[in-house]
Design goal:
Elements lengths: L4 H10 L1 H7 L3 E6 L7 H16 L3 E6 L2 H10 L6 E2 L2 E2 L3 H25 L4 E5 L6 E12 L2 E16 L1 H9 L3 E5 L1 E3 L5 E3 L2 H11 L4 E6 L4 E2 L8 E2 L1 E3 H9 L7 H14 L3 E6 L5 H7 L6 E4 L1
Parallel strand pairs: 1-2, 1-11, 2-8, 5-8, 11-15, 14-16
Antiparallel strand pairs: 3-4, 6-7, 9-10, 12-13, 15-16
This protein binds adenosine-5'-diphosphate and magnesium ion.
Amino acid sequence: MEFSPKDKAAILIEALPYIQEFYGKTIVIKYGGNAMINDDLKEKVIEDITLMKYVGMRPVIVHGGGPDITEFLHKVGKESKFVSGLRVTDAETVQIAEMVLVGKINTEIVSLLNNRGIRAVGLSGKDANLIRARKKLATVHENGKVSQVDIGYVGEVEKINVDILNDLLDQDYIPVIAPIGSGKDRESYNINADYVAAEVAGALNAEKLLLLTDIEGIYGDYHDKSTFISTLTQSEAKAMIKDGTIAGGMIPKVEACLCALAAGAGKTHIIDGRLDHSLILEVFTSQGIGTEVIK
Ligand code: ADP
Ligand code: MG
């Protein structure tokens, strides 16, 4: 499709209210799923974040790395097992997760952004004590019963050192965070990146938390596309987790939205990272996309 110069001007002007609304505001982006694997989509996400930065927003990126971690574990002969969407993580697995997240994925995102003229800085939860973590037990909902299961070095956020993030943001850097936390005995914890993004959004009082994933958003029945839900309230979300309608990897995502809202983030959205420029669509247009979880 070709646009005339007049159309192009109109499109830019249409974005003006959103640019004004979010100028100087903090937007936390959880980067994961296909948008992180597919090279084309990757470039588009990087472009979107670059645009957000250059129109005056303060983006913060938290990335996942599930598929890469699974691939590396497979290479060393370890298969991955998940409980309630969380990876069962023994001592060797957490070491591999840390190497992949911090050494490979984080540095790649940082260099892609730097290549666009952005000043991105990579951090793991260990840098400047960014993420203090403790063990997290997995909550299993089965046959109407709830139980807690030990799944190893899987952590939850105890405390975010928000000062380092604000210092970087004030100096015009984009923090890029790998979801590895440090325990009280310096042990590493692998933390689901959705939770890290939520805690970061809460601690920074972010305007928005955007969780990129590989599905359109939340479905009432995820095998039936006609059950798509564009807005979900906190109490509806809780009920859907309890009755198993929201399952697997969608559980941490929805819990992340609830946690960010409770901690003071403005709005939370689960959006489809398979769509070209989904971040721009969500932030700069009135339609919005994906599922919004609200108070
Ligand atoms: P990511 O890599 O983005 O963290 P996950 O695979 O961890 O993605 O989580 C998203 C997945 O959650 C979806 O692909 C889907 O299979 C699953 N899911 C479970 N329940 C739902 C639901 N009610 N609506 C949408 N997706 C759901
Ligand atoms: Mg996930």
